[in-house]
Amino acid sequence: MLSPKKYPLFPQRWLAIGAVLLGIGFLAAPARAGNYGYFVTYNSEVEAGELELMFMNDLTQPSRFRREEGFGDYLSHMVELEYEVTSQFATEFMIEWFEDLDTGDHAFTGFRWENRYRLIKKRVPANPMVYVEYEDLDPATRYKMEVSGWVRSPYEENGEEPDRERIMETRLILSEDVGPVNVAFNWINETDVTSGTTAFGYSSGLFWMAHQGYDKASTKKEDSPDRDEYRCPMHSDVVQNTPGNCPKCGMALKHDSHSDDETEKDGGVGIGLELYGALGDTKSFGLAASRQEHYLGPILMYHFADHWMFHTQLAIGLTKASDNLVRLNFGYQF
């Protein structure tokens, strides 16, 4: 166990890494709107037939609590394969591992199988969705798909730590599009299938598609007339040549007149903010920040043409029990 020390909240090397990652996103050429870029929060959007491969990476500076348990700065990774089966149902499979940069510890820690189902096919207020995930993980797992329970419990824990954590995670997902802004909230329950104890957490987010644009073709057909299109501000795949409403979200389609020499890009630049944390468990429920993790994280997302997506977050720990993270995801939509 390491002796207690004072560790800087966010050392200069972490700020430098974060600045580089954010700079990559801002220097990228803007494109048309794509997927949201949340890291912990889910919204209710599902697009039938979409297949996505995501590589997720965190660089973490542990809190003092975890330093005392022997943690050093570490990298954690997850590979996710998601298939959106219908416009209401999505399923995905994830594997994860980590490397501790200070101690040299490393391990493959297990897998997760997640399923999400939007309860009502038609768009309704808050668009409620249910989420069920089975986790089979080594207790040493470090990737933060969510946070719940306690870092240090306010009660005495009995019994030995199990060799595996087998958790059934459920969420209630509420999500609403307000113009180009998505607002989402998740209530999180993580139930240990062996002990029956349930840990609680929350996650909330705001995400705004900040930029859309077109590519100019290198040549222009002078005899080609301008063409009118009506496009959903939130769903770039919804396009028609007459006015109307989006069949996905009900928003009025926006008139979009441009020449045939303009070629649409499938992409976009978005910015967002997440707030997420823990709320105790069935043994001791409540908010006790000195013993729980809580995070505030700004997000930058860039959705490339040809289906590539990049997004990054600086997750700032709001309590002494919280870590600090630089998060970076790359995804490809087939």
Poorly predicted ranges: 1-35, 213-225, 258-265
CATH superfamily of the largest domain: monomeric porin ompg
| Alpha-beta content class | mainly beta
CATH architecture of the largest domain: Beta Barrel
**Order of the strands making up the biggest sheet:** 1-2-3-4-5-6-7-8-14-15-16-17
Radius of gyration from the CA trace?
22 Å
CATH class of the largest domain: Mainly Beta
Which fold name fills CATH's third level, the topology of the largest domain? Porin
Largest sheet: 12 strands, antiparallel, barrel
Number of domains: 2
Question: Would you kindly provide a written description of the structure presented here, covering whatever features stand out?
Answer:
This protein is mainly beta and 334 residues long. It has two domains: 18-153 and 183-213 and 267-333, Beta Barrel (Porin), CATH 2.40.160; 225-264. Helix content is 6%, strand content 47%. The protein has two helices and 17 strands. The chain has helices at residues 12-27, 64-68, and strands at residues 51-61, 74-84, 89-100, 106-118, 129-137, 165-178, 181-192, 198-211, 214-216, 227-231, 239-240, 254-258, 262-264, 268-281, 294-303, 308-317, 324-333. The strands form three sheets. It has a twelve-stranded antiparallel barrel with strand order 1-2-3-4-5-6-7-8-14-15-16-17. Strands 11-10-12 form a three-stranded antiparallel β-sheet, with no helix packed on it. Strand 15 and strand 16 (308-317) form a beta hairpin. The longest helix is centred in the N-terminal third of the chain and has 16 residues, at 12-27. It is globular. The termini are far apart. The model is unreliable at 1-35, 213-225 and 258-265 (pLDDT under 50).
